[in-house]
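User:
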Amino acid sequence: MMNTGGPAFAFAPNERAQIVADAGRSDVATIGFIDDVEACLQAFDYASISRVSGGLPEQIAQHLSTIVHTAAQLRGALYRLPGDVAMLIDLHLLSDGARRRVANDLSLLVEPLEDIAGAVSDIQHAAQGDALTENVRLEDRLVRAIATIFRNRLNRKPTSEDGSGFPSTLRHVLKFAGYRMPRLAAAHAAVTPARLRALLGDSSRIGSRD
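Assistant: Predicted structure:
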């Protein structure tokens, strides 16, 4: 669960019971689905009230930049360490065994630091690319994220067809979340069957009446 500084989003017991009924099962996978959806809604709430920088919520963007900067500083300091150790050995203040230990430790530290910095940079670049090339509403991203959770947790394809169980599950998720999040109250009504087909890339009923 992401730390937003506010209370964690949680469905009420009767709301959880309705979502379980929509899923048509009450096993561990369904409980995991509900837990993941709660975390997703918490993230949506955080993102919807946060200022955005470079395609990311500003606080997260600043944190990622700090990680990249700090990792670069630490790598620079570590790269200077062998020279410092060599000088101490020349002054007979340190043994040659210490040099070997430092060299071994450096090989274990520097590469993971570079990997972390590289991964964070990839996240930043991807977010910037999304911000520049794609004008996607946050609510649309939420629907797609819930669809992904539905597929991964319940092992069922989310479609706009009622038989898939996804439309009713989504309707109740958005309805219940809308009680706490005004922005989602409007989204609940906006996700029509046609809109859901478009968001899911479901062409099975295009051309039919809604």
